[in-house]
């Protein structure tokens, strides 16, 4: 029976990951202004918030069957979808209020919105009065947000069957929503790459830019790097950065009977090899973890660190398209945890494009140790 149950769980997990929606990206050159001041960041932010709100509003008009068909699923968890939508509306409303603070400097996309109900009403007719200056942006933005919303709602529809980063399962889980407005945390997963590879180049680049990131490592790959190099190589690799864990191997911890051993082993490895860089954060592969894991995490003094801005750099998007996706989501959510893959060569050029595009925008980068110490 145990074997049959495990096989069923595996099949359900595979079904949940089957036929993924192609990742969304938006060509930022379609936006007619550079993000070269805090006020212009707010203009673009207000526009993306209203564009996404329009798509979110339209999705609520679909009946269950139409929504399931749109998401490519036979069955959907409507209760979870409604909860995720409600969280999105709350973040949009709070974000728009922050973005309105600069309306005296530039009134573009400034509407007299005094409640979330006002936001919903304005979103419903948003595309009708954006002005000629922004007409080249409005439809591509609409298409981006429709696809991005489908990505998120598809994950919400599968909650209860497959956990993901769109839902926090306990009070020990964080996703970046606790950050201050305009603050972002860089995170990288899946590493380290072999010696001399993309992780080495990326950490050097971060130090040159005086930036910090949290690297969530796999125990097996860290062990391989340690055994293949001199004793101080890992400390030099991650100097100035933070290192959390993803477990011993890149495998879903939701149905894995050895998930606790995976976390313990990886944690002990990082604590021993990188005591100065270690932070007590666990990034679950695929965002999948157990709903009953809170007590274990507390016993290990760990917190689950999720993300809310995914570069999708491990798929078909180019480095620039991944960066453009990230910038659009930064404008939309105005704060959050960004996820990239340091084992992939696309990560560094994507980061370089991202930093160039936001250098004068007034955003800030959260210190990785500061984030780890947040309660």
From TrEMBL:
Top-level taxonomic group: Bacteria
Keyword Signal tagged: yes
Signal peptide: 1-18
Residues annotated as domain NodB homology: 179-292
Protein's UniProt keywords contain Acyltransferase: no
Keyword entries, A-Z: Signal
The protein's name: Polysaccharide deacetylase family protein
InterPro entries: Glyco_hydro/deAcase_b/a-brl (IPR011330), NODB_dom (IPR002509), Polysacc_deacetylase_ArnD (IPR050248)
């Amino acid at each position: 029976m145990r074997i049959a149950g495990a096989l069923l769980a595996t099949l359900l997990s595979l079904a949940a990951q089957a036929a993924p929606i192609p990742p969304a990206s938006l060509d930022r050159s379609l936006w007619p202004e550079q993000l070269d001041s805090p006020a212009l960041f707010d203009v673009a932010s207000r526009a993306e918030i209203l564009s996404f709100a329009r798509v979110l509003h339209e999705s609520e008009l679909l009946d269950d069957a139409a929504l399931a068909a749109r998401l490519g699923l036979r069955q959907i968890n409507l209760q979870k979808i409604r909860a995720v939508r409600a969280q999105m509306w709350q973040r949009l409303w709070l974000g728009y209020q922050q973005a309105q603070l600069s309306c005296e400097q530039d009134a573009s996309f400034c509407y007299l919105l005094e409640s979330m109900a006002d936001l919903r009403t304005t979103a419903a007719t948003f595309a009708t009065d954006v002005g000629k200056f922004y007409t080249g942006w409005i439809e591509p933005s609409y298409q981006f947000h429709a696809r991005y919303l489908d990505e998120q709602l598809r994950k919400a529809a599968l909650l209860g069957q497959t956990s993901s980063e769109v839902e926090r399962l306990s009070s020990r889980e964080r996703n970046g929503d606790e950050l201050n407005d305009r603050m972002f945390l860089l995170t990288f997963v899946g590493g380290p790459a072999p010696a001399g590879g993309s992780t080495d180049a990326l950490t050097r680049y971060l130090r040159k830019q005086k930036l910090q990131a949290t690297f969530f490592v796999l125990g097996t790959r860290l062990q391989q790097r340690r055994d293949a190099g001199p004793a101080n190589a890992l400390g030099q690799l991650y100097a100035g950065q933070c290192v959390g864990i993803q477990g011993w191997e890149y495998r879903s911890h939701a149905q894995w009977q050895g998930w606790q051993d995976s976390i313990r082993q990886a944690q002990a490895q990082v604590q021993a090899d990188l005591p100065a860089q270690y932070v007590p954060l666990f990034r679950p592969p695929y965002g999948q973890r157990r709903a009953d894991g809170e007590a274990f995490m507390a016993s290990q003094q760990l917190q689950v660190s999720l993300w809310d801005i995914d570069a999708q750099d491990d798929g078909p998007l180019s480095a620039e398209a991944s960066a453009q996706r990230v910038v659009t989501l930064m404008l939309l959510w105005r704060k959050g945890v960004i996820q990239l893959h340091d084992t992939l060569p696309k990560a560094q050029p994507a980061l370089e494009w991202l930093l160039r595009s936001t250098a004068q925008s007034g955003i800030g980068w959260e210190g990785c140790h500061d984030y780890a110490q947040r309660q």
